[in-house]
Every structure is written in structure tokens, then in C-alpha cells.
Amino acid sequence: MLNRRTLLTTAGATVALATPLAGMAQGRKDAIVIGMALEPPGLDPTSGAAAAIAEVVQYNILETLTKINADGSVTPLLADSWEVSPDLKTYTFKLKRGVKYQNGEPFNAAAVKFSFDRAGSEKSTNKDKRTFANLSTQVVDDYTVVVINKEIDPDLPFVLGQATAVIVEPKSAEGNATKPVGTGPYKLDNWAKGSSITLSKWEGFRSPATAKINKVTFRFISDTAAQAAAVLSGDIDVFPRIGTRVVPQFKMNPQFQVILAGSRAKTILSINNRKKPLDDVRVRRAILAAIDRKAVIEGAADGFGVPIGSHYVPGAAGYVDTTGINPFDIEKAKKLLAEAGVKTPLELKMTLPPPPYARQGGEVIVAELAKIGIVVKVQNVEWAQWLSGTYGNKDYDLSIVSHVEPFDLGNYAKSDYYWGYQSKAFDTLFDKIKTTANTAERNKLLGDAQKMLATDAANGFLYQPQFPTVAKKNVKGIWKENPIFVNDLSALSWG
Predict the structure, then answer these.
(1) Class of domain 66-174
(2) pTM exceeding the 0.90 threshold for the entire prediction
(3) CATH, range 266-465
(4) pLDDT per residue over 444-465, tens digit each?
(5) Rounded to whole angstroms, how far apart are CA atoms 52 and 143?
(6) What is the dihedral of CA 471, 472, 474, 480, to 10 degrees?
(7) Domain 11-60+177-263+467-494 in CATH: superfamily?
(8) Which residues pair with 35 in a beta bridge?
């Protein structure tokens, strides 16, 4: 029940930058260099939607009341413990004592209230704003806080362990995008835009022995070949979620370990339901019928994926197999377009962010849609452009992106979300899901929601990705699963 919730250069330049960092990591085992495909647009997870933000700051600089572990379980972090009322709406959190922020300010119940009220406020840009707007936070004393949820959500402890729920320090909160101030074991040292972010162990942390690595450098390399080159040359010690295309060259190399981690991510062909003729379900179903998911998985992720038919993945509570609702069928796709009165060639624009799965998957889907008379013009953009244009301004026809949040079905109940999907039937069903405490009944409703999204072809549901991590053989503590996208630095050490 507690397993939950968007992802998203030149090789020569990036490799050149790595040399001094590599020497540091090789010469000292109190330092480590981690590769990332995407650079975060900022360092405040309460104001930006990019998963890369959490990969740098969550649990490292900024902390939450609860912690989501690699196996999906939830344990206390800034909270010592919590109790839940019988109606599952009221949570009483006992907070850790003696915790300070990196600017010397105390962590207390007032900071929790400030953080949650801010996240749910009218001016909030938190991607989980709707969740926090339903919360009422009451301070009992400095170390006791009561959180009352308007709706039943048995997974609230999980939600409060995600990056959007970090407890910020009130006086410094507005500067967190560039200078995050938290309670975690690491602090920001330097951000060389376009190149790297360096964190160092914070000696004022409440449990100094927790972090075994003194200095961590995140280096940003989007090109898959450059990623492999940086690892092979020793410039990168760990590359989580490395481009799948290069994995085979590491599998038989005794100098490296390859970890294939599961996830709750959904790689989808995003369809702008607002635009004609994409607002016609027959057109959307035609697009889905033209797509061979297995070919996409092979082309986009080199086979590292499991087909899905809705915005839900195998292993999640209440999962049902919906891949048969929109099967690969070229002739059916052509008929559906004809029924919708679409004259071919139909021209559409596909906006693609940088990750290889998007660019490679786009090539496959463009070729497949061409077979039914849909001519797709590809527009490759950088991550910041995708966030502002596609996600923010909804300026697109089609896109490909991995949504990594475990429990994000609720986005389909948000009419202003970038997909533009609107269904009163789904809204009603999702409201019922949120207020159903019985696990078996809730799981059945979740199954109904999956079937509805598949039938409505709300998006092109492609596959559940499997994310490979390549690391030097003596790096310990790497997460074996990805219930959320974080790099838990305090877990890392050199063996």
C-alpha cells in the first residue's frame, strides 16, 4: 500500500570537464562522482516538476517527515513517529528534537506548518499543490504537529516522503532554487551551470556518522555514448539510469557492476487531448492501434521495459492488464481514422525532450504512424524548453516522457494538466478511490480507473521502464529498486 509517484552537450566538452573530478574520486575514497542525464532547472522540489531536482536534493540537503526506502516501505525521518485516527484522516506526528537547519535555525512544528501551508497555497507552484491544499496543519507544541486530510488517503505517509513535501526553513525558503537550506547530511558547495553540482558533508548534521562520503559531485551528460565514455575512463563512479544502449559493454566487465532496477515509472506517448483532431477518442485509439509496444521498447529502451496499457504498472496495488484494450492493429487504426473523418496525410508535431528513450522511441513511433497516414514532424527540445512549452504552455501535439511518480493517476482528474484529458466519469471514480479505505474495494476501483483510461485512450501507454545503473564494482549502497527517483547519498560508501 505504501509503494508510490516527470523524468526526463557535447561529448567532448563533458568528458573534458571530468578529468580533475575523476582524479579526486580515484585518489580519495571519501569522494564520489555521480552521472546524471539531465541537469535540474533549479534545486527547489516544491516549485519545479523535474525529477532531476529530487535526484540531487531529496534526503541529501532537504528532508521530509517520512522516508521512502528502496523497497517502497516508509519509515520516520524528521518525524520520530506518527499515529493515524480510525477514520484515516488525522495524522499526529511526533518530531525529532534538536534538529537544526544549515543556517542555524531550529526545525520544529512551525516549520512543518509553514511548509505544508505554503505548498497548498494559492500562489504555490508545487506539482502536488492539490494534495497539500486538502491538508490542514495544526501545531500542538514545538515537536507535535497534527495533519488533517479532507479526504482519505491511506498512502499519505508515502506522499509526505516525496520531494514535494520537504520541510523548508521559512526564512530561506524563497532562495532554495539556487541555495537550498535544509536539515540533511549534505550542503550545496557549488553549482557550475551546464556542468556539475558539488555537495559536501555537513558537519552540523544531527548524526555525522550517517554520511560516509565527504564530497559528492553530480555531472550532467545527456549523450549516451558520452555517458559510457565517462564511466569507462573512470571519470564517473556511478551512473544511475544510464542510457540503455550502452549497458551490454559493461555486463561482462569485472571492473563494473550493473544493477537493473524496477520502477513505478510509466513511459507514455503524451497526447494533447485539447487539440483537434486529437480530441476525438477514435483518433487517439487509432494512434494507439498503430503502435507496436514491443518494437518501441526495443528501439527506445533496448528491451528494458514491460508493456503497459494504462497509466499503471505491474506490481502496483490494484494493477490489471489493459494491454489488450488497444492492441497493435494497423488495419483497425486506419478504420478508426476513417470513422473519425480524418483525411490523410494528417500532420502532427511531436516534441521530444533530451533523454535517449524519448529520442529513440520517437523514431520508432514516427515510422509506425506513417503507416496509417499520420505524418509526424519531430521537434527536439532541451529539458527547460519541454517544461515551459510542453508541460507549462501545453504547446504540443505528441510527446514522449516517463512519468516516474508511483501514484499519479490523479493527474487525469486535473483538467488543467498538460494532457488536457477531461472526463466527469473519471473524476467521479477517482474521488471514490480517494475516499475508499477498504484495500480490496480500493484496488477494484483502481482497476476500473485503469480500464477507463485505456478505453478513452487518454494517452499512448507504452511501457514500464527498467532502469540500469552502472557503477565501479566497489561502490556500495546503491538502491536496487526505484520506487521514487532519488540518489540516497548517505547510503553510499566505498567497499
Answers:
(1) alpha beta
(2) no
(3) 3.10.105.10
(4) 999 999 999 999 999 999 999 9
(5) 31
(6) 10
(7) Periplasmic binding protein-like II (3.40.190.10)
(8) 219
